[in-house]
Amino acid sequence: MSSTRHLTLLVALAVVAGCSSEQAEEGQTSQETSQPAVESNAPPAPAGEIDQELAALGEGLFQSKGCVACHTIGKGRLTGPDLQGVTDRREYGWMTAMMMNPDSMVKADPVAKQLLAEYMTPMLSLAVTAEEARAIYEHLRREQ
Ligand code: HEC
Q: Out of 54, 77, 91, 137, which residue is the most buried by the measure of CB atoms under 10 Å away?
């Protein structure tokens, strides 16, 4: 199967999954996070001015890893939450853990568990490395 068709299929699946979870409560889970239940060991959070080069790398990864199949940034909820404002409502360590180990997070972390209860679809584990998670974080921070 070509990668374009594969992505189309993924998007179609995401839409179907999204529809089936429409009964779920609307609204973001706004609980603040501090220490995630799962360690990510990501490099330190980018701070201060946006690192445009890192953010551009993250933007590419957000597409190529397939995050776009389930998430928008400011265009509403799909299978997963709209990621606009996510860098304000979540800590960096929590976010990198969620990107790298969603399976463990939805089992062990109270906020991730609550998200799973709300969205009713587990986030896919996409083999995101610590460096990739940091770049995607910077992309999300730039888009807030
Ligand atoms: C199959 C759909 C799917 C894919 C693909 C996916 N996610 Fe998710 N994501 C979810 C769902 C659903 C949740 C809510 C938690 C749960 O139900 O597991 C979530 C939660 C999150 C959260 C926490 C959001 C919040 O409001 O706190 C972040 C951050 C996130 N995803 C980032 C990513 C990134 C980055 C990628 C790509 C590497 C990605 N996701 C790929 C479905 C997906």
A: 137
CA distance to 4, 11, 47, 88, 109, per residue, from 30 (Å): 35, 27, 22, 10, 15
Atom of ligand 1 nearest to the CA of 118: 17
- Determine the number of helices (DSSP H) and then strands (DSSP E) in the chain: 7, 0
Tokens matching residue 105:
């997070």
d(CA 66, CA 54): 18
Architecture of the 3-23+33-142 domain:
Orthogonal Bundle (1.10)
Helix (H, G, I), strand (E, B) or coil at 16: helix
Per-residue pLDDT tens over the stretch 103-141: 999 999 999 999 999 999 999 999 999 999 999 999 999
pTM confidence score: 0.83
Q: Is the CB of 57 under 6 A from ligand 1?
A: no
CA of 18 to the centre of ligand 1 (A): 13
Q: Which atom of ligand 1 is nearest to the CA of 69?
A: 5
Which atom from ligand 1 is nearest to the alpha carbon of 111? Answer: 27
